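Slack export, channel: ligand-projects

TW: morning all. Re-posting the request from yesterday since it got buried. We need the structure predicted with the small molecule present, not the apo form. The ligand is magnesium ion; the SMILES is in the block with the sequence. No rush, but it would help planning for next week.
GE: picking it up
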Amino acid sequence: MVVRSSIGGINNPQELQSALVGAQYIADMELATASYLALALQKPLLLEGAPGVGKTEAAKAIGSILGRRVVRLQCFEGIDSSAALYEWNYPAQMLAIRQADESYVNIYADNFLLERPLLEALNSPEDCVLLIDEVDRSDHEFEAFLLEFLSDFQISIPETGTVRATKPPVVVLTSNRTRDLHEALRRRCVYHWINYPDTALEAEIVMTRASSVARSTAESVVNAVTQLRQQPLVKPPGVAETVEWSEAATLLNSQGAPWPEAFLRSIGVALKDHDDLEFMRPNIDSILQGVAA
Ligand SMILES: Nc1ncnc2c1ncn2[C@@H]1O[C@H](COP(=O)(O)OP(=O)(O)O)[C@@H](O)[C@H]1O
Ligand SMILES: [Mg+2]
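GE: finished. pasting the full token output, ligand included:
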């Protein structure tokens, strides 16, 4: 195994953490350490956690600090290798055959190949970050296929040959853990579970992401959101909701809505499920009473 202690001028987890701040991403030391180790050991980074805790954004921020393009494979139910690797452009091939008349046409030329993210990452002329997003949405078969891809970074195209990465890309996988990932896939990666940030960190995220918001407002929203997450909600608010709720309430307040009414009137930005809103209705006043900014 080749261990590189310095990656793009980053020599340790602390330096990675500071670099991420420059990319507007606030990581705690555990996440910074896991990310640094994945880069240093040249292993895929597997980030698991609830929706909205910053997994996808972490991959983008890592791309940004390394100065690399992020190639994203968004997984979905039923995803197969043609969506992940490549497809032949059949209509274009048919047209070429018709137009060629009797003369020879190579229908397996590169211009008929539609690159999908995994092939795009292998073929990328410059170094990139490959983001395999929400891998838990795919099925076991696709996961096994991914495992193979991650072990040799090559793709065999029967009609044209094998494509191999000159240099393996930095890989980040994310999962919302709607199901358990296969042991073998997890073993290949550096694993990190992202929790909801603690209140100080989350207020910091709001201040970083929403420049118009006052710190007291950010803290109030973080307090309210933290309480909401303790309720048995269908869709607990993620960090994006905290940021947006802070912005929305700030806007309404600037237009004359007093606190805490501005929070209440913009609650649809934080709770996006009818049952959750109904469930919280009797208690929301008490939650907001304590958080008047
Ligand atoms: N640690 C963080 N630092 C800065 N912004 C964050 C952080 N975590 C979450 N966010 C914000 O929350 C949003 C949602 O995060 P995202 O990465 O899409 O969540 P996930 O992929 O885990 O569902 C991001 O667009 C970003 O604005
Ligand atoms: Mg995501």
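GE: first-pass observations. The chain has two domains: 13-82+114-193, 199-289. The domain at 13-82+114-193 is CATH 3.40.50.300 (Rossmann fold).
TW: perfect, thank you
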